[in-house]
Amino acid sequence: MGDTKKGRNKQARDADDRQRKRELTEARDRADEAEPPDDEQDDVDEAQQEDDESLDSTRECHRRGCTESATFVVVERYQEETGHGPVEAEAHLCRDHTAEESPVNLDGVYDDYVFSVEALPAADNVV
Q1: DSSP character for 103?
Q2: How far is 17 from 23, CA to CA, in rounded Å?
Q3: Conformational region of residue 27, where left means phi above 0, alpha means psi within -120 to 50, and beta covers everything else
Q4: How many helices (H) and strands (E) does the chain have?
Q5: Count of alpha carbons within 13 Å of 103, Cβ hemisphere only?
Q6: Are 73 and 91 in contact (CB under 8 A)?
Q7: What does each C-alpha distance from 29 to 10, 32, 34, 46 come to in angstroms?
Q8: If DSSP codes are grouped into helix, strand and coil, which group holds residue 78?
Q9: pTM to 2 decimals?
Q10: Which H/E stretch holds residue 87?
Q11: 76 touches 103 (CB < 8 A)
Q12: How wide is the angle at C-alpha 21 spanned by C-alphas 17 and 23, nearest 5°?
């Protein structure tokens, strides 16, 4: 029997069927396994890191090579190119680099799109 399009399609379907059967068998085998324990310490560490970041008003500018203190936070929330949900980009910038910022993901605009520039609290207000 010669190499035909019909034969190649059948081989491809057979390979897909074998792959699906293999994945189904592996999934059934894993169903008997116990769930891994939830590591509560990771949650505590993440919360503490967020608190540390909010108190750290002496951050340096996010731009490479800039050692100025960050005075603004620039946030842009847009729809990811793949359509799998929103993405929020945040950058802490000095005054000069903040002035250069503008929306860059306008092709990802959706109902909850955000572009904002907010001043960080002054260093002398932090206890």
Answers
A1: -
A2: 10
A3: alpha
A4: 3, 3
A5: 12
A6: yes
A7: 29, 6, 11, 33
A8: strand
A9: 0.48
A10: strand 86-93
A11: yes
A12: 115
Residue 23 has pLDDT above 80, yes or no: yes
**What is the C-alpha R_g of the chain?**
25
Contact 72, 95 (CB under 8 A): yes
**Cβ atoms < 10 Å from Cβ of 68:** 13
Can you read off the two tokens belonging to residue 127? Answer: 């206890």
Average pLDDT over residues 103-127: 74
Q: Which two tokens stand for residue 96?
A: 């000069």
Q: What is the pLDDT of residues 73-97, one digit of tens each?
A: 988 888 877 777 888 888 898 989 8
Beta partners for residue 94, in sequence order: none
Q: Burial letters for 70-99: b for 16+ Cβ neighbours within 10 Å, e otherwise?
A: bbbbbebbbbeeeeeeeeeeebbbbeebbe
Residues in the chain: 127
- Token pair of 53, please? 């970041």
Cβ contacts of 49 within 8 Å, gap of 6 or more: none
